[in-house]
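Follow-up to my earlier ticket, as requested here are the two runs.
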Amino acid sequence: MAIELGKLGVWRMSTQLDGAFAAELEKLGYGTVWLGGSPGGDLAIVDELLAATERIKVATGIVNIWADEPESAARAFRRIEDKYPGRFLLGVGAGHREHTQEYKKPYAALVEYLDALDAAGVPKESRALAALGPKVLELARDRTAAAHPYLTTPEHTQAAREILGSGALLAPEQKVVFDTDPERARETGRKTVQFYLGLSNYTANLRKHGFSEEDIAGKGSDRLIDALAVHGDGKALAKGLRAHLDAGADHVSVQSLDDDPFPAYRAIAAELL
C-alpha cells in the first residue's frame, strides 16, 4: 500500500523548516511536508518534524543521488521508519546537469540507486522519484510509490498521469504567490522561476508542454510566470491547485514564494481542506 500523502502538502527548503512550522501545517490540514534543497546527511530534520507532529507525513523532495550514497539514505530511512512507521517518504532524484560535475547517464544512475535501495531494504512503497520526462516517469511507476514532478503545469500533470496509469501516486509541485496585484506578484514569482530557466531539464519540459522559446527566454514571459507561480487571492490559488488535481494529480505540493508563507497556506486550506 502506497503512503497516504493527503490532497495537499507544502514544499519548502529544509533549512527553513522546524517542528513548530510543521505543527502549524498539520493544524491547517496539510498532509505532507516536502523537504526541498537536496537535504543530505542523516536527515535529522525529519525526526524533528515528525516528533513535533502526530499525523503529517514528511517526504524528501529530493535527496540528490550524486550527493548521498544509497546506503546512507537507507540508514536514515530505517532509523526514521523505526521511530515513526508509515510517516516518511524517501524521495530521490538526479538533480541538475548544470550543477553536478558527476552528472553522467542519469537514468542508469537512478536505476542503480534504486537497486541499491532495494538491497538495503527500503521498500518501493516508501520511496518517490523526481520525474519529468516519460522514461523517468515510467521508472517512478515501476520502482517507487510516487512521481514528484517539479516546476510543471496541469498539462504536464495530465500527460504524466497517462504514463503512470494507476501504478504510482502523482505529486507535482506548484508555486504560489498570495497577492492580487499582478505586476507585483509576477515580480515575486519571477525571482524564483528565472533560476530554473537556466536548467536544461526544466526548459526542455516546458517546451514540450506549450511554451515557446520567447516564453522561456530571459527572465520568462508573463504567461510562463503566471503558470509556474500562480498568483491571486485564496480562490485563485485554489483554482490553480485544483487544476492539477483535475488533471490527475493525487496530491499537490504547494510552495509559497511569499516572505511569510502562512497567509497563503491558510487561504488555500480554507478553500480546499
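Run two:
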Amino acid sequence: MTKLFSRFLKDESGATAIEYGLIAALISVALIAGATSLGGTLNNTFTNLSATMNGAAAKGNVTIP
C-alpha cells in the first residue's frame, strides 16, 4: 500500500495538461481583452469620422451624391 501511495505522489502526468490548460486560458483572456479594447477604439474613430463628414456636408463644403 505504501508503494502505491508513493507512486501516486510521484506521478505528474496530469500536471502538464493542467499547465497547458492554464496557458490556453490566459491567452484567451488576453485576446478577449485586446479585441474589446481595439473594438472600442475603432468605434470611437468611426464615430468621429462620421460626425466630421456629416458636419462638412451640412456646411455645404462637401456634396454627398
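The only thing I checked on run two: Residues 27 and 33 are 10 Å apart (CA to CA). Let me know what else you need.
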